[in-house]
Specification:
Layout lengths: L13 H9 L2 H26 L3 H14 L12 H4 L1 H11 L5 H15 L8 H11 L5 H31 L3 H18 L10 H25 L5 H17 L14 H13 L4 H4 L1 H14 L6 H14 L3 H5 L3 H16 L6 E4 L4 H6 L10 H7 L2 H10 L4 E5 L6 H10 E7 L2 E6 L3
Amino acid sequence: MTLYKDVHDNKPPLLYYLAAIAGNVFTFRVILALWMMATTILFWHFCRALFKSNRSAIASTVCFAVLTSLPFFEGHIANAELFMIAPTVGAFYLIWKNNSLVRAFAAGVLIAIAALFKIPSIFDAGVIVGLWIFALQPNKKSIRLFLTKSICFGLGIALPMTITFVWYALKGSFSEYLTAAFLQNFGYVNTWRGQATAQVPFLVKNGPILLRGIVVLAIGIVLFFTKRRRSTVFVLGCLWVATSLFAATLSERPYPHYFVQLLPSFSLLLGLLFTDETKEQALVIFPLTLLFFVPVYFGFWNYSTSHYVRRFQTYVNSGFSLEYLNEFGDHTNRNYEVANYIKTRTGINDRVFVWGDSSAIYALSNRLPPIKYVADYHIRDFSSVEETLSALRKAPPAMVVILSEAALPEELLSFTEEMYTEIHRMNGAAVWYNTKQ
């Protein structure tokens, strides 16, 4: 099966290929642990290059290591945001106080790799270009160097992106890749606000994003005109925080792992706060206040670290038990029950269709869906009930699972009642078997 053409998701491909290499969640977590160890070492070297004081470098690195590990930010889960930190920090490290065109190109390649984990990391490219603009001198040589570096940087970004487009074109899924990984993300930004935004004017619908963009631009202008009175570390930290906040709030969805992108710049500012003994120690309060205000304003969720520790203790005491599974929510045990039932009553090549937001059932049962969408929100956001129904009629799955919390559209309910017989109910899930095959 080809990613995007035969199975859909709205992220670029690197996270999925890394997950495929892992093969299971445990190995994926091991890869994440090793990756973050290397990332922390890289961040330490970057801090050493940034700060004059080792105390500041140590403080920032300790903050970074702790924050990227907390369940509060979903730091214990193999999210794309964690994997994209290393190439981003590597890009900043390469260009720091170095005007080499080769390094500018290599930094672009690293930014592209980060973006191929998740698109919002591309906004970090603006920080690099912004720093180069801040360093401009009013002479032809400086302007020529800036333009040359920017072109090399842009070519570096373009190279990995182009390779992926060629790869998927050879796989016959160029348009699906372009649409799913890139173009559909523009619509994804507004879907959280509901369908009411579909018919409103462009400026009304996109006003909040434009306003946040203006705020970032204003911060950049203020930093530009005050750069001579501020340290380069302070300017970098503030500009990086501003662009990362914009990226984290792009979709206006309240997922805590979006803030992982902020943690490198946040840690740099904390290093200044804890160890710097200049006026900037007080000034750093302003960007930090903004960092605390934004999650509250957008109502970002948070996950309890103490609950994570308590759940681990349950596993130590009772192993992989019903009590342990229920610690993740009632739906978790249900998913295992449904998956086991499917495995005992279908063949390995049979397809099943799950209506609801529990695509884990496909993985647990080792069965593929009959369509490329694995969650009902995929169908709502990127497809339609009519398209789904047409695909199901062409290739009816062996089983249909309807989860109690999911509102099944009338058309799909009629299709299910026409083609299937309900054979089992368990823990909030109804299993229907294809009687027409």
